[in-house]
């Protein structure tokens, strides 16, 4: 769409040019922004999400909830796209009326608990996580959007690995930031 608008603007500019101005000179002034997301950006966003989760966990262990909660809020502000509206976020360990977290407040409660509006949340990021690794089964790129599906492996301080099924949809916004628009996570079906 941006390329189309730029081309329409270029056409209008050409139509109004005096004959002494070359089209090549005017065309060189038009900037077309490439908003396509790359696989490398998606992988960095996933690794950044894992690193942030581990940072929240270690901050909580060292300095308590009063340090972990603002850090988690900062992570949510930079990693998720709540500033554009609701995010399709279905965390791993949620159920009932509070399964989905379309608001920033709901996401924060899931990650760090301590919110009376979400009494079942104990704080997923507050567990003693030591490693976090995304293992993709699918990465789909569509212009400024990417969808991934696979697993994330969380290892705690005792070496216990928790595997979750995870689907993310990332978008590249106007400033080049990669943000999460959809985050669906669940435990694998045990059958």
Written account of the structure:
- A hairpin with a 2-residue loop joins strand 2 (129-142) and strand 3.
- This protein has a single domain (39-186), classed as Roll (Nuclear Transport Factor 2, Chain: A).
- Helix 3 (39-63) packs antiparallel against helix 4 and helix 4 (65-79) packs across helix 5 (104-112).
- The N and C termini lie far apart (45 Å).
- Mean pLDDT is 86; it is low at 1-18.
- The radius of gyration is 21 Å and the shape is globular.
- The chain is an alpha+beta fold and 191 residues long.
- Helices cover 36% and strands 26% of the residues.
Short descriptors:
single chain; 191 residues; alpha+beta; 5-stranded mixed beta sheet
The largest sheet, given as strand count, sense and whether it forms a barrel, is:
5 strands, mixed
Shape, principal axes of CA atoms = globular
Distance between the termini: 45 Å
Beta-strand segment tally: 5
CATH architectural label: Roll
Structural class of the helix and strand makeup? alpha+beta
Strand content: 25-35%
Helix-strand sequence? HHHHEHEEEE
What name does CATH use for the topology? Nuclear Transport Factor 2, Chain: A
Q: Using only CA atoms, what is the Rg?
A: 21 Å
Spans with pLDDT under 50 lasting ≥5 residues? Answer: 1-18
> What's the mean pLDDT score?
86
Strand order of the largest sheet: 1-5-4-3-2
What oligomeric state best describes the polypeptide chains here?
single chain
Highest-level CATH class: Alpha Beta
The number of helical elements comes to 5
Helix amount, in percent? 25-40%
Number of domains: 1
